[in-house]
Amino acid sequence: MDVKAWPFKEARRLLKRYEQAPPDKGYVLFETGYGPSGLPHIGTFGEVARTSMVRRAFKELSDIPTRLVCFSDDLDGMRKVPGNVPNPELLEQYLQRPLTDVPDPFGTHASFGHHNNAMLCRFLDTFGFDYEFISARDFYQSGQFDQILLRCAEKYDDLMKIMLNSLREERQQSYSIFLPLHPESRRVMYVPMNNVDARKGTVTFKDETGREWTVPVTGGHVKLQWKPDFGARWAALGVDFEMYGKEHATNEKIYDAVCRTLGARPPNHFHYELFLDDQGQKISKSSGNGVSIDQWLTYAATESLSYFMYQKPKTAKRMFFDVIPKAVDEYHQQLRAYPGQDDKARLNNPVWHIHGGNVPESNLVVSFAMLLNLVSVSAAEKKDQLWGFIQRYAPNASPETHPDLDQGADFALRYFNDFVKPTRRYRPPTDQEREALKALRVELAAYDGLIEDEALQSVVYAVGRDRFDPLRDWFTALYEVLLGASQGPRFGGFIALYGVAEMVALIDRALAGELG
Length: 516
Fold this sequence. Notes:
Elements: H1 6-15, E1 28-34, H2 42-61, E2 66-72, H3 112-126, E3 132-135, H4 136-141, H5 146-154, H6 156-164, H7 169-172, E4 178-180, E5 195-197, E6 202-206, E7 212-216, E8 222-224, H8 226-237, E9 241-245, H9 252-261, E10 268-272, E11 275-276, H10 293-299, H11 302-310, E12 317-318, H12 323-337, H13 343-348, H14 350-355, H15 368-378, H16 383-393, H17 403-420, H18 431-445, H19 453-465, H20 472-483, H21 491-498, H22 500-511
Parallel strand pairs: 1-2, 1-9, 2-3, 9-10, 11-12
Antiparallel strand pairs: 4-8, 5-6, 6-7
């Protein structure tokens, strides 16, 4: 197939792994990772959504069964107490303890790790992802990881050589691929190993008091440092595909070398560019810049976020509130295009990768951008007020028959009040613009044609054509003088939605200096 959509490119590359024979394990395994030191966030969503898109494309190309595993590293030690939990002082004594040993500050689960794992599963279930959850704690303690851990002991010198070559000299002195859990305190110990006995499958170390301990590498008594853990997990599970942010790209060779040393084939990789805020700075959980998943869903539906995630994953993209209306409208444009496309075009359409073969019909007959401008000029405060304009423009539409539009009206009211209203800046018209507005008022007041987008656009165009060069200056004036914005909708369509008489009244207010 010559479908150029990036999930198909990755799926075709993945299929080449098994062009000679299907996998011995009977399926192709996709994996995503999660660090449960905090709640799932927009990056978690993006990683699972994008991986699911590649998996969907693969299933279109091949009959080989697939699985998607979401792996939680909940055996990791708590490095610092989160600042966004109740009674954080109660957790101080549990520093360096596995997250699944730390009491749940919310009081709802067996541990803080269990709480965040539950939040992850609820998060993924909300969006309808098809996945299997694996807890590192269960994976280590149940014995599923034992074979690989014993092999790590056998290949200890080789694995250490891989790791030490990537570390600074001072770090090399205390480094070990194994992190034993202290038999008494249960703390994750970042200490060198005094002995690794591959035959017995044990490691020996000293704690900070100088006391020596010997523990088995199996059964959850040790965990692996995070970089070796990456490659060892691939080997243990037989992972075929994993994507991650570009900050991991420099470690790919390490992950791969660990996996190969343990006797397994590394998976296909895909690393994506990171998101930036409106200032071009990397989005950070700790600094809180950019847009959170909850914030996005306050102003738009999940599918628009999936659409944003689909677009050019190898390109750094600014992700702030201004991108939401554009993502909503482009998503619905693609929905409307889908029914008329041939099979190849459909497989290149982002909505196929969001919905698979069950692409819904768009009933957003008024764009999100148009709804925002309608809220602005109508001073509507409730959705019912917007529906009065909408039903005059689209008489067959109703909240029941057009749920996307009804939801969009709610979103538009929230978005306008939070982001557009505080930034509106009306300006008075220049002399040239004033004369053009007067002419447009005359034309609209006398207009008795069809209330249709194109017909009204022709009226607006004719007024500006002989008065402005370039013509875009005329439309810029309409937006800035009448809407208080630097850009706006196709103006003929907006007049059809808002109303001809209402637009005449709006022009009168602008000419009288009453706007803003």
